[in-house]
Amino acid sequence: MLPNCACSRFDVAQVAFASLAGKEADDLIKELKDTLERIRPDYPVLQSAPLPEPPGAPARLFYNGIIRTMRDDLPLVEALVIRGTDILGVGTLQAMRDLAPGAREIDLAGRTLMPGFVDPHMHVVASALLAPGLGLGPVAGEAYTFDSVKAKLRQAIQSAPSVNDWIVATGFDSSRLSDGWQNITVDVLDDLFGTKDPDQQNPVYIASGSGHTTYASRRVLKMAGVPEYDPPQPDGGKIATFFEDEKDTGRTSGIFIEYPAQKYVLAALSANHQGFPEDAKTLGLNLAEILYTAVASGNTMVNEAALGIALGSAALEKAAIETVSIFTARPRFASAQYVNQYQLGQTGAHKVQWDQPNLSDPMFLQQAIKLFADGSNQGVTGLQREPYTPWARIQTERDYLGVDVKGNQNLPVSALSTLVGIANGLGWQVITHANGDAAIDNILAAYQASNEQHPDNGALRNRVEHCSILHDEQIDLMVRLGVVPSFLIQHVAEWGYVLKKLLGDRAKLLDRCASVEKAGLRFSLHSDYTVSPLEPLRRVQTAVTRIMDLDPDHGVLSADERISVVSALKAQTIDAAWQCHADQYVGTLQAGKLADLVILDSDPCTCEPTHIGDIKVSETWVNGAQVFCAAPHGEVSAA
Ligand SMILES: [Zn+2]
Ligand SMILES: [Zn+2]
User: Fold this and answer.
1) Domain Amidohydrolase, which positions (predicted)?
2) Which of 13, 125, 315, 638 falls between 20 and 30 A from 231, CA-CA?
């Protein structure tokens, strides 16, 4: 499953998980811990947590490889010494032997050692919750056609035990169907069911890959009280209707755009569907798999970019992650707390549990608040200054979006400004999802207003997430405001060819790494997992080559936005750590920082650029402990 932006897909999990989330937090955590203890013997991933080192254990000295510090003052060194959780020093082999006599020496045998990778924007708990849904996204090696999607749905309908069983699916991506854009409308679902009678249909709830769009069957519309004609149109979202000859027929197509519209069908799901996934075992195992996959991919820190969105409470999600971490190798965390911003629009009140940022625990930073300014460019809901192309209009008009579509404005500038002002005033960094150029305009205006209230805002490092379609003057404004971008660089590899069709020449403004670097902005590269894999070197390859992997012609998108390998590595080590307020702890190899390391089979800086993504992670160390080892090497052997 390769959905295209995960930021807002997770409210489905939040309400669908009501059977767990409804419990007291303490009960849930106890159930999770008891369950994992019980099943631990059967699952190797639950035995992967590193053993604590005995006190007084000797230092470790790494040598005989390429050691890249990611520092400008001393980029390459001969040796590194760590002791306990800390880096003791870097320098010549002799100097390090003098620094730590009696250290256990680890022969790198020519491998490359670097600071561990930092993924500055991904989703852990929500991804774990959605994992059990029926996957309707593209699968490597399989043709992705509308017929293939319908076949999976038909199969699910036929194998449902009764007409009352919910069918919940994720990952559907109209933009990448090889046989042209199609939507899963009520008419399509009627055909699959062979009836238009809502009571003879299963409740079907399908989240798009971006989560910015939901598709529902007539049964769900009936449960939700959405009429067949002239559905309500909430602020900040759209319940789509069919068009004929450019005229709105008013007939509901079953497509719900953005949370204010999606909440109609979410409410039905929440009220009528319990236990998705079925229990604490599923949640715990899925979480464990994600944490382990993160470290096995070389990540030593991840930023959970919407903490609380899945279980309805940031504290509960943090406790769930920490409980699973008793059993499983894990990266350290930064976090951006999800704020239910839509309640602001509905009630005018801030129904938000504000809390203070807390940077004191380097295993779990609470440094940011998360907001959303728009939808998804490939879903034609990213908010643009100018309408999408005529091609986009032809694809989306009939069922869906109507004419002259510019995307979806989730919140107006006034509401964004209010939320940013409150958060910054309390000392929180704000990170805001903004894909289209107009959404970036909106959030920059909100950041500007906040800067006027809070002159010290530069220190907060406010961010624009994805920051996909970016103009020169916006880069200039970001420099003036002290606001920095984090790019979902696999948009280039996997959706670049789609965005050329949807946005025309504007697609050239996608993920402008070289331009922001030239302007002096510290940028980062993220996975937005599950949107793209937890593989930092894959992102290095895309940032360095800008090759559109899924383009039938394998073209290069905006060659002048290519960056060097070292820049792409910094964007996922020191600069990503800086964007997460973690640079005092990690991001470079430097005495006094924590010992987060990755050891690679070969050096990305001398590798053929088109093969960087294939470099294997050999070992990963977090906080001075080995948490992943691909094969026995040197002094340290596989756990
Ligand atoms: Zn997002
Ligand atoms: Zn996201």
Assistant:
1) 104-628
2) 13
CATH topology of domain 10-46+124-272: Diaminopimelate Epimerase; Chain A, domain 1 (3.10.310)
ipTM of this model? 0.99
CA of 3 to the centre of ligand 1 (A): 11
CA of residue 99 to ligand 2 center, whole Å: 43
> What is the CA(639)–ligand 1 centre distance, in A?
36
**CATH architecture assignment, domain 119-123+282-587:** Alpha-Beta Barrel (3.20)
Whose CA is closest to 385, among 506, 292, 493? 506
CA dihedral 303, 282, 289, 175 (to 10 degrees): -70
In the reported structure, the alpha carbon of residue 438 is separated from the centroid of ligand 2 by a whole-number distance in angstroms of 19
Beta-carbon contacts of 18 under 8 Å, excluding residues fewer than 6 positions away, are: 270, 274
What digits encode the pLDDT tens for the residues 531-570? 889 999 999 999 999 999 888 889 999 999 999 999 999 9
56 phi and psi, to 5 degrees? 80, 5
All CATH 3.20.20.140 domain ranges in the chain, comma separated:
119-123+282-587
Going from the Cα of 389 to the center of ligand 2, the distance in angstroms, rounded, reads 26
Topology, domain 49-116+588-638: Urease, subunit C; domain 1 (2.30.40)
Cα separation, 616 vs 604, whole angstroms: 10
